């Protein structure tokens, strides 16, 4: 089951807070970005720009010594804060 499928299931059960929490845990985004995304899945707002980003590409940036560039790209594409982006990029290294 994909993340979006899990989120839609939670939304269908009116468990929005759990959906927001799950999305934040899986993506490393901030609260506002997660809420906006969940709202968009529930049909309440437009889908945020560029939710899909290639983890393999981000890993390749990190492996080539371009971690700052990977963090910056992730922040631009996802719209989360610096700490969330750094934590996500760090999680790709494990």
Please describe what this structure looks like.
This protein is an all-alpha fold. The chain has 2 domains: 3-41; 55-92, no CATH class. Helices cover 69% and strands 0% of the residues. It contains 6 helices and no strands. It has helices at residues 3-12, 16-27, 31-41, 55-63, 67-78, 82-92. The longest helix has 12 residues, at 16-27. The protein is elongated, with a radius of gyration of 14 Å.
Key descriptive features of the protein:
94 residues; mainly alpha; 2 domains; 6 helices
Class inferred from helices and paired strands: mainly alpha
Number of domains: 2
Strand content of the residues, in percent? under 5%
Number of helices: 6
Instruction: Compute the average pLDDT.
Output: 84
Short description:
By secondary structure, the chain is mainly α. Helix content is 69%, strand content 0%.
What is this structure's SSE topology?
Layout: H1 3-12, H2 16-27, H3 31-41, H4 55-63, H5 67-78, H6 82-92
Helix pairs in contact: 1-2, 2-3, 4-5, 5-6
């Amino acid at each position: 089951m994909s993340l979006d499928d899990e989120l839609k299931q939670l939304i269908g059960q009116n468990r929005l807070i759990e959906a927001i929490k799950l999305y934040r845990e899986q993506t490393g985004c901030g609260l506002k970005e997660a809420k906006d995304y969940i709202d968009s899945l529930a049909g309440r707002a437009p889908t945020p720009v560029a939710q899909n980003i290639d983890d393999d590409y981000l890993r390749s940036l990190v492996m080539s010594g371009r971690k700052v560039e990977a963090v910056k790209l992730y922040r631009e594409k996802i719209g989360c804060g610096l700490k969330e982006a750094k934590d996500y990029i760090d999680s790709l290294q494990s």
